[in-house]
Amino acid sequence: MECGLLALPLLRSFSNHFGRGGPSCKNVLNLQCNLKASEDSPYGKWVVSICPAYCDKTKAMCFCGNGTKYPDRPVAESCGFELKGNLVDWAKADFQNIFANEDTKKGWCNIDVTDLIDGHMQVKEQCDCKYDCTAGRFCEIAIQCFCINQCSGNGICNGGSCQCRKGWYGIDCSVPSPLIAKTDWPEWLRREEALPVSEFVPSDANRTYTRSKSVQFQKRHPLIYIYDLPPEFNSHLLEGRHWRYECVNRLYDQENTTFWTSQLYGAEIALYESLLNSPHRTLNGEEADFFYVPVLGACLIARADETPHLNMKNFMGLRSYITLDLFRQAYFHISQSYPFWNRTAGRDHIWFFSWDEGACYAPKEIWNSMMLVHWGNTNAKYNYSTTCYLADSWNAIPITDRGDHVCFNPQKDLVMPAWKLPDPDLVTKRYWERTKAQRKILFYFNGNLGNAYEYGRPEENYSMGLRQKLAKVFGSSPTKDGLLGRQVTQDVIVTNRRSNHYSEELASSKFCGVLPGDGWSGRMEDSILHGCIPVIIQDGIQLPYENVLEYRDFTVRIEEEKIPQLVQILRAINETELDMMFTVIKSIWQRFFYRDSVLKEAQRQKKYFNKSSHWASAFSTLEKEEDALSTFLQVLHYKLYNDRWRLGSPKQQLKKAFLPEDCPV
Q: Does the model's pTM come out above 0.85?
């Protein structure tokens, strides 16, 4: 068996050895930290993994190494190089600040905590714990690393990869073998209801499925089969993070207490973990209604230019292109190793593209599938890449690889809400319940407004120029030239100034602007979670659930050319319509929030560490309404009966399935 590949298209029981390959993962790979050296650049040109100390070539990460007091202490990026003012000289290693070991001066790799406490020594500010799994000023405290579902309590987390205990399988060690007593099975698998249905479980002996006759369940449709992909598509990308905040929605402090991140692409992790824990999950692909392909694309695109071995040059220097190739390799794997893809040409398969421009760069081979995105660009107006970050542009990707598909097809795809920080104030202050009378601001938008403002984005086409147009008319903060908008109005706030009271200002506004950034932005979610009516200004681009919810009941769409009439349009909305919109938002706001992910983590903290943080207590008091996960499942329910694209034929009678009462149409 090749390392990272399965003997059969089933569940892995092998260890996910990052940086290893060959039969039984015995061969250590040579993942260099540095690019090719030259006379002017002895450590090669800058790359995130650049290293003047010891390079761990199984991870392409830089550490102090043997001969130092603390060989496992990270020497990440500028820590190891000389500074010239605020600039780093990547050609000159700062050996004095790294390796010094004298009585009067100790470098980062030899200094003790007591040396700092005594006050007679200092440590370089740029040296810190960028990698996961350690905390403290000197990375001296071992902490809980991030892993998918924290290995379900059935394994050891190694910075992104789970080492499962005997008898447990899967990326999160949540699938038991016949060795495990049924009483110890995870809750999602103990679905004891009315109808007896046999289930497949992996045999511990030969990694093949055996039918367990003792398992009796009533299956709740839709049944979702989650591919157990080789680790290079998920856990290795997590383990290879050079900055621990990349692509994850939570981390742990030195007390092993959860703290949530504001990672924009955290929905990819949140949904994946929730599906792995869902009673809608099935281990039997033969009975599945849908197939989820868990490629962590955001984890690759976030670090595509971090290390030499990712070979960006082979992909024209485009992060979008190398990520396309990752998804295509996953397609090759599942289509060749499993029987399910070819049955429907992938029409019942689901992929998540959480990056700025969503599935615009999806490979042509998988376009029949359902795409989950944050960017619902139908290409009706913008049929080209709109990002100003050139490495993410898909314009230059050859049509032979990308094909000529649109970015978003409302007939088959779905825009999912973006991840938002689980702020307990959201619950304790109940922003979504603020009355109309409490909302004194007519219209509110706070964000980057372009190059006319201090620290503004310099590109003219940032946000497709829409934020700039809005600011020219209604800007309430002065530009670099001291100018305000042409129609500046007292109860209209359009500002670039960061606010420490952002949530309070959103919750004090009747209408809130939803405009793009480099692709999608999270302003729709900000608006809904604070009970503010979204004003959508982006032609031809759909927002979360727009093809399944009745958007006219709780949003206002204004055509881009009508930006100068914005205030006039909003003031013309009568009180009855306003009351209806606020009422609808109160009833649906949790659909834009990943409550299931938050509560599952609260349960883990309580079970494993007997902790109950403020956020856990707050969100546990929420009324149980439909959240992002349950809304997604409801959409799949609807597709079981009504999705002609998925069926590949006119509507036909399907087998009877459980259907929620308020399934959106």
A: yes
